[in-house]
Amino acid sequence: MSKGYFGEFGGQFVAELLIPPLKELEDALENIVPSEAFQKEFSDYLKNYVGRESPLTHCPTLSTDLGFNLYLKREDLNHTGSHKINNVLGQALLAKHMGKKALLTETGAGMNGVATATAARALDMDCIVFMGAVDVERQSHNVRRMKLLGATVVPVEAGSKTLKDAINEALRFWIKKQATHHYCFGTAAGPHPFPTLVREFQSVVGKEARKQIIERTGALPHSVIACVGGGSNAIGIFSGFVDDCSVNLIGVEAAGTGEEGCTNSAPLCLGTAGILHGQKTMLLQDADGQIMPSHSIAGGLDYPGVGPEHAHLHHCGRAEYVKVNDMQTLHAFKALTRAEGIMPALESSHAVAYVLENKDKFPKGCNVIVNLSGRGDKDMDIVEQYTELFD
Ligand SMILES: *Cc1c(COP(=O)(O)O)cnc(C)c1O
């Protein structure tokens, strides 16, 4: 079966009972998504509910220090504070067109859960969110937000009680409830057609950024840089430039503390090929194929796998994947906050950090776009622990 493959990665490695809802979703992607009626309704929501288009902001102070122009694609300014709402609203709207009554999803740090619970309210649907019991404990603020939005949050007690287990549980639940529920997958990963569907709904980021940078500078950028968890914000902005061979695409993974052998979330830089959550992709796994625990200071990057299209772009060399550690991330968080008055999410701070730490790799005077995937308000409890950030 070659359907849903990006080179050798991707596919649909799922239980027989999940084939029917995935097939139904493939049909919807082919027939409903391209229709004028759907596109018009989706654009209306992006404009009037999410607040698009998001600005492309030039950073004057950092650009002077760097010797080249740093532009930020401001996904932090979207409703609910990140790029996730683009995908979630697209899928919720599609589910509605497919006649579904409810959304189910998984969440790790809670951001996808909050975005899905929000979209469910906007479209008057029920919402159930699977979340590892450990994450329910450590992300209680987002659990309260989901509950206020009327969602049911189900703590998952299996395995390591984190995101990986929440996804397994959500897939199992979907088998039982496929007639009424749509699984609103949170990133550009999982079995076909999710990686393609999520890229489709996040591609608005790349389309806008390409138009905006050409309007502002008269040319394509030197590089486009984004953090990579499952890979949805990165594939969204990359998709606008992937056919422009002159543009460097750089994905930034989370290295954890950066020490040799530390727990990390960098399967492209440090992992091997294997199968997880219905897809063939790059994974953090041991020699027996057991998934290893992942970690990042940024909850949204904490996933032991990555979307299959990134595995392909890595494999064929069209995009470069690099990693940044926790301290470099915190330094970038502070640098952007102090220089420009823009407080980035710790996920997005990884992408900013790569630029700050590698300024010699960029020619003087060039134009670089960083996808600012989200805002930092949600990270106060973490950054509070680092007193040097307040000096
Ligand atoms: C969830 C999240 C990410 C990581 O997810 P991707 O699918 O890799 O984009 C990055 N930034 C923010 C702000 C997030 O909430």
UniProtKB/TrEMBL annotation:
Reactions performed catalytically: (1S,2R)-1-C-(indol-3-yl)glycerol 3-phosphate + L-serine = D-glyceraldehyde 3-phosphate + L-tryptophan + H2O
Top-level taxon in the UniProt lineage: Bacteria
Domain Tryptophan synthase beta chain-like PALP: 52-374
Short name of one Pfam family: PALP
PROSITE patterns registered for this protein in UniProt: TRP_SYNTHASE_BETA
InterPro entries recorded: Trp_synth_b_CS (IPR006653), Trp_synth_beta (IPR006654), Trp_synth_beta/beta-like (IPR023026), TrpB-like_PALP (IPR001926), TrpB-like_PALP_sf (IPR036052)
Enzyme Commission identifier(s): 4.2.1.20
Residue list for modification N6-(pyridoxal phosphate)lysine: 84
Record function comment: The beta subunit is responsible for the synthesis of L-tryptophan from indole and L-serine.
Matching PANTHER family: TRYPTOPHAN SYNTHASE, TRYPTOPHAN SYNTHASE-RELATED
Subunit (UniProt): Tetramer of two alpha and two beta chains.
Protein's name according to its UniProt entry: Tryptophan synthase beta chain
